[in-house]
Amino acid sequence: MLDSILLKAPVYLLVFVRCFALILTLPMFSMRSASRIAKVAIAGYIAFFIFGNIDTSVYSPYIGDEGSSSMLYILLLVGEALIGILMGFFISIIFAAFSAAGQFLAFQMGLSAASSYDALSQVENPLMGQFFNLVAMLVFMQTHWFQKLFLGGLVTSFSSLNALSIATANDKIVQFMISGLTSLFADALVIALPVMGTLFLITVCTGLLTKAAPQMNLLSEGFPVMILVAFFIISIAMPSIIDFFVRSFNKGFADLEQFFISISGGV
């Protein structure tokens, strides 16, 4: 195996670049606290195992005698990096839907000011957004989507998509990313809507009671009540929320697969 890698080092480097770009943009691996040496090592090992199971003959006509020193080879490396970034960024969009749902809930609960740096999303995120982000990551790992992504999706992407086919698919890429952003807000609203609707009704009821009896001042007293009710509803609906997480991952990976098939011409 090592001899074949040394003999086909330029092709192996193409495989490595796609794997490394995917790892750099995945939600958990893209954290600054993750070691860069570990990222390079993981990408190298993944490329090592994938390299022997894929057909790389499509790149042979574009790698001449000069090997990796040609300008065309550099463009192939850029194309492979774009494919990896595209895959990782779309998975980040799926996770961003859960984080956005937590932000909607935090705003309605009055906890939007309680925010801190989120290592997973690498932005300032309310505590509820960090909570949903963490739950989504645990579900992602528990349902073995990491294994399916690297051992299944990445290998399949090499058989259906290469740097040559993505160069002529600019319009499809733009449409795909716009549809992903649309699904982001739709999924976030689906997750947060039950709790937001209940809290809205509580706010309306406390407002009516305060109007009827101003001395009660229920709006100020309703703040801890809304937090308790929100956590109660989340705890009751958590099995359904986790099921929705799993279906969101299934739908996201199915959309990514269809996108690759449409670019590759139905292969």
What's the short version?
By secondary structure, the protein is mainly α. The protein contains 9 helices and 2 strands, in the order H-H-H-H-E-E-H-H-H-H-H.
Radius of gyration: 23 Å
Give the terminus-to-terminus CA distance.
28 Å
Major pleated sheet: 2 strands, antiparallel
Please list the strands of the largest sheet in the order they lie side by side.
Answer: 1-2
Structural class: mainly alpha
Count of DSSP strands: 2
Number of helices: 9
Which stretches are low in confidence, meaning pLDDT under 50 for 5 or more residues running?
none
Could you describe the 3D structure shown?
- The protein is mostly helical and 267 residues long.
- It has 9 helices and 2 strands, in the order ααααββααααα.
- The protein has a two-stranded antiparallel sheet with strand order 1-2.
- Strand 1 and strand 2 form a beta hairpin.
- Helix 5 packs across helix 9.
- The two termini are 28 Å apart.
- The model has no long low-confidence stretch (mean pLDDT 76).
List keywords for this structure.
267 residues, mainly alpha, two-stranded antiparallel ribbon, 9 helices, 2 strands, 76% helix
Topology diagram in text:
Blueprint lengths: L1 H6 L1 H17 L10 H16 L19 H39 L5 E4 L4 E4 H16 L2 H16 L2 H4 L3 H43 L5 H47 L3
Antiparallel strand pairs: 1-2
Helix pairs in contact: 2-3, 2-4, 4-5, 4-8, 4-9, 5-9, 6-9, 8-9
